[in-house]
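User: Run a structure prediction on this.
Assistant: Running it now.
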Amino acid sequence: MRVEAEGRIVREWPANFTFVGEEMFTATHGDLDGDGRAELVVGQFVTASNGLGIEYFDVSIFDGRDPARTPVRLTVEDYDPRGQFVRPRRGGTCRLIATRWDVLRDPRRAEGMYLIGQWMAYRDGRLLHDASRPIVVRRLLFSFRHYQETPGAPFAHLRDPRAQAWTRFPADLPPLDGTRIEGSVLRVKADTVDFAPSPHRILVLSGFGEHVHGEDGESALWWLVDGATRRPYPPGYQAADPEWLQLAPAYVATYREEGRRVHLLVVRDTPSSTTSGSR
């Protein structure tokens, strides 16, 4: 994969294709931050799940003012740029709706598989949580076949009247009754964070947003959480600046959710937080 700007190569990386065919990657131009310069968004298909056929894409956002800058990266499930970036009718900057699938428990309808959409704004090499908009989910039913061609998906799926705002985790942090481990972020490299509870102890955390199995066979899940908005970052999120969280105060908390452990690295007062989503 190669990105060129002004006649020169600004970024090059090996393609990571599990399959070969049409739409293995997409390239989209659009001004995401309102500075008058269009960002380049590259979506690279990685794989698809068995059963539901969920498609996984690695998405890279190259800054419009500085294309040579390291891009923002994240993983998006069932990515389609035609319905992934949305500009408000009243105008303003585009928003990315980061989508993924997960099992959620609705008190009225029991457990089910849901498409989850989380609003993010791009600014200066980072993704900001748009807490002025709720996280939206839609339950997988016979009336909702995500794999069918739907104009404007995934946004079209999540604007449907059968979608709903989600106000529990992963929209908000759950009540944390256990012990918190306070500390600070020592360094960030790709999707790995070195967290220091004390000067003589370092915890290496990675795989945010991924399910892993411990030695006891129990499923566990790590989330990197913005403490200001109480929302998790998308899986695989990497800001352009690898030192964006360096020395930021944070804490680790663990709780149980439906037979699995959930670990949270909650970053306090990160400079990438926003409560309004405005520029």
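Residues 272-279 have pLDDT under 50 and may be disordered.
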